[in-house]
């Protein structure tokens, strides 16, 4: 007699959770598109095709060309020293597949692909946030209608990188190492720094080893678990597959790195780049300059890495630190985008900012307001948002 009400309560709770999980991304997706379209239409003649084109800035055009025509041979067709090899293949391959299957023009297919990936990333975040509805709302709002939501809903790798990183974290949380290895392989085919997620897997494996206390050295313990060995070995498979492709087609398996010079990325001192950015005071006014914005976001991202480590999320902290520091060895370009798409930082930020109701409400309103303003800055070509 007492179990039936308990079952009904459990089912009701599950239905409520399912409604939250599905409704929140859809709601913020609609709000975000309204805000971004409103920012575009201010001063423009409203046109959805022109709206999509207005959001296609910076790296977007490269991904569209790769999805349309594939990678350059050598030399490039128009005799330029800039090739498409710096952009990893998984995202444009997905865009091309969606365009072919649904008979869509490439730009429309890319926007559809990014939007679906961004919503999927929100769904995966639900269990990672401990099914906390307020934290989940903040994360959905940030990704789909926040200040950098155009990164996640236009033609860039951010939504795919966010989704795959979240999938790796969820697989590790459940100690499903084979799934983590498979998602890591896909992540390494999305962006170069994605290959370093394997370090988070190794740290989680070591933590499990310490908990089990098997009485044998770590190396011998791993050798006795073939599924873990397979997971580790397949983690960089996406990167190696791309390197093989470049070696066969271009003759240089590291072309994605060597071509960086053509984009103005030359190795230097990251501390010096940060200092130059912080000290780039605007000629007039109090609003920080683009280099200052980039440097401040980089410093903020590194601070969040420290918080991750303080919370004993060592693997996530190491991964995020590498994803921030390694690009800084060239310059500050795109660092706002890189930091703004790191899943562990976003998850931690959503958890911290949702603890108090008043803070949650203020942050949510700020996210929505900044979506409109920063979309205008993105369309206007603000360099910090590259």
Would you mind describing this structure in some detail?
It is found in: Endoplasmic reticulum membrane. It is a multi-pass membrane protein. By secondary structure, this protein is an all-alpha fold. It has one domain. The protein has helices spanning 3-41, 48-55, 60-69, 90-102, 106-128, 133-145, 149-153, 158-173, 177-188, 197-212, 218-223, 226-234, 237-249, 255-258, 270-278, 290-310, 314-328, 335-340, 343-353, 357-379.
Keywords:
alpha-1,6-mannosyltransferase activity; single chain; mainly alpha; globular; 20 helices; Glycosyltransferase RgtA/B/C/D-like domain-containing protein; transmembrane helix; 386 residues
Task: Give a quick precis of the structure.
The chain has 386 residues and is mainly α.
**First CA to last CA: what distance?**
62 Å
Biggest sheet details:
none
Q: How would you spell out the order of helices and strands?
A: HHHHHHHHHHHHHHHHHHHH
- Please count the beta strands (DSSP E, at least 2 residues each): 0
Strand content: under 5%
- CA-atom Rg in angstroms: 22 Å
Q: Please estimate the helix content.
A: over 70%
GO molecular function: alpha-1,6-mannosyltransferase activity; GPI mannosyltransferase activity
GO biological process, one term: GPI anchor biosynthetic process
Membrane topology: Multi-pass membrane protein
Protein name: Glycosyltransferase RgtA/B/C/D-like domain-containing protein
């Amino acid at each position: 007699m007492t179990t039936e009400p308990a079952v009904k309560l459990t089912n009701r709770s599950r239905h409520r959770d399912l409604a939250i999980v599905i409704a929140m991304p859809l709601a913020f997706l609609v709000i975000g598109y309204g805000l971004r379209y409103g920012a575009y239409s201010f001063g423009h003649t409203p046109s959805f095709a022109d709206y999509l084109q207005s959001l296609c800035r910076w790296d977007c055009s490269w991904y569209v060309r790769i999805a349309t025509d594939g990678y350059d041979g050598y030399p490039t067709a128009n005799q330029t020293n800039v090739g498409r090899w710096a952009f990893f293949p998984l995202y444009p391959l997905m865009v091309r597949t969606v365009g072919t299957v649904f008979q869509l023009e490439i730009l429309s297919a890319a926007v559809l692909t990014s939007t679906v990936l961004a919503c999927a990333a929100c769904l995966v975040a639900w269990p990672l946030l401990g099914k906390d509805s307020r934290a989940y709302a903040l994360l959905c709002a940030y990704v789909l209608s926040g200040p950098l939501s155009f990164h996640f809903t236009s033609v860039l790798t951010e939504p795919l990188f966010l989704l795959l990183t979240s999938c790796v974290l969820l697989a590790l949380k459940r100690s499903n190492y084979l799934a983590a290895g498979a998602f890591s392989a896909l992540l390494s085919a999305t962006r170069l720094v994605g290959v370093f997620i394997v370090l988070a897997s190794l740290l989680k494996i070591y933590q499990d080893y310490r908990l089990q206390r098997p009485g044998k050295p770590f190396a011998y313990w791993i050798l006795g678990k073939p599924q873990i060995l397979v997971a580790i070995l397949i983690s960089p498979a996406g990167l190696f597959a791309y390197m093989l492709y470049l070696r066969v087609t271009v003759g240089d398996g590291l072309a994605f790195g060597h071509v960086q010079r053509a984009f103005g990325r030359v190795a230097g001192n990251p501390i010096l780049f940060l200092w130059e950015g912080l000290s780039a005071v605007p000629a007039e006014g109090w609003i920080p300059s683009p280099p200052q914005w980039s440097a401040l976001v980089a410093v903020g991202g590194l601070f969040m890495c420290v918080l991750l480590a303080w919370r004993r999320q060592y693997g996530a902290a190491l991964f995020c630190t590498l994803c921030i520091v390694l690009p800084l060895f060239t310059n500050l370009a795109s660092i706002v985008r890189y930091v703004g798409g790191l899943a562990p930082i976003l998850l931690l930020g959503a958890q911290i900012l949702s603890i108090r109701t008043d803070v949650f409400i203020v942050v949510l309103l700020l996210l929505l307001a900044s979506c409109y303003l920063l979309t205008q800055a993105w369309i206007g070509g603000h360099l910090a948002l590259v």
